[in-house]
Structure formats: structure tokens, C-alpha cells
Amino acid sequence: MAIITWRLALDKQFAEHLGRFKSLKTLDLSEALFRARIIFEHLPSSLTKLKLQRLRTFGEMSRGNRTCSLSAGDLAPLRSLHSLETLDFKYSDLIFGHSIDSGLFVDLTSLRELNLGYCRISIVKDGAFEGLSNLTKVILDGYPLGSRQFSLQSTNNRTIKDLSMKRCGMA
Fold first, then answer.
1. CA 86/CA 119 separation, integer angstroms
2. Global pTM?
3. Helix (H, G, I), strand (E, B), or coil: what is residue 171?
4. How does pLDDT run along the chain (171 residues), one tens digit per residue?
5. Number of C-alpha atoms within 13 angstroms, CB side, residue 114?
6. Pairing of strands 99-100, 49-51
7. Which phi and psi (to 5°) does residue 147 adopt?
8. How far apart, in whole angstroms, are the C-alpha atoms of residue 47 and residue 83?
């Protein structure tokens, strides 16, 4: 059986059509090529699982980069996805000033699983997962711990039951 991966160039027209799927629960946009804000602003609020592995944006492609740089502002529209339970950014270069700041995901109150594996994040700050009272699984695989700041101090870590930190370079 052959598996075909579509590498889509997603535009505003596609985004607007995507927003019409009012009952959509799962969306996989992995390896898609798009302008983040345009797509994120039109995601249906019914989503429970959003897979965004190896994201690429139009600006990144012109520089020959295969991954995506997203700012906290680009992610702002995701905050309206109150039913979202799984958010997967694995292998996407997420640039939030190279850190995950307190409150970045605060409005995603239904979020249970967050995959930030191999995203080249430099710092996970105190309170990065604050307000995520349903968060049970955090994946930070490939996070370069050796010389970086990492803190779960003020996070409600009573809910986190599964923390994956494979290949983190711990000595």
C-alpha cells in the first residue's frame, strides 16, 4: 500500500472553506505550506485534534528553509479553539522569541496533550503551561536541556501525568 503525502499550498480561499466544516474534529496540516495567521483565523471551533508537524510558511520557502517560524501573535487565533484536546507541533521551528512564555496556551482549557518535540525551543519559562488544568501529556523531546532554562515550577503539575523528554542531552 502506497502512502501519499500531499504538500499543499494553502491560501485564503482554502482557509475560508475550511472554516465551513463546523463539525470537524481532527485536522492534519502537517508539512503544509501556508501563511499561519490566514489558516489559524479560519479553523473551525469544533476541532479537538490539530496536527501541525513540520510546518512551512511562504516566507520560509523563499529562503530554502523547510520549517516554520511562528510568533506568539501568529498563534493568537488558536486561543479560540476551546474544544482542542491535542495540539501537535513536532519538528516545527516555533520561534516565540525562542521561549515558551507564561500564558501562551492559557485559553486552550480543554488541551490534554501538547507536542513540542524537536521544535528548537530555547527556554520553557515558569508558568508556560499555567491555566491548562486538563493538560496530562507534554512532549518536549529533543529539547536541549544541557545549557537551557527549563521550569515547571508554577505549572499545575498535578495534572501532568506523562512528560516525554527523549534526546534532551541531559548529562
1. 16
2. 0.80
3. coil
4. 333 344 455 567 777 888 888 899 999 988 776 666 677 888 899 999 999 888 765 554 444 454 455 666 777 888 889 999 999 989 876 655 456 777 778 889 999 999 988 877 767 777 778 788 899 998 988 876 655 555 555 455 678 889 898 887 655
5. 24
6. unpaired
7. -125, 25
8. 6
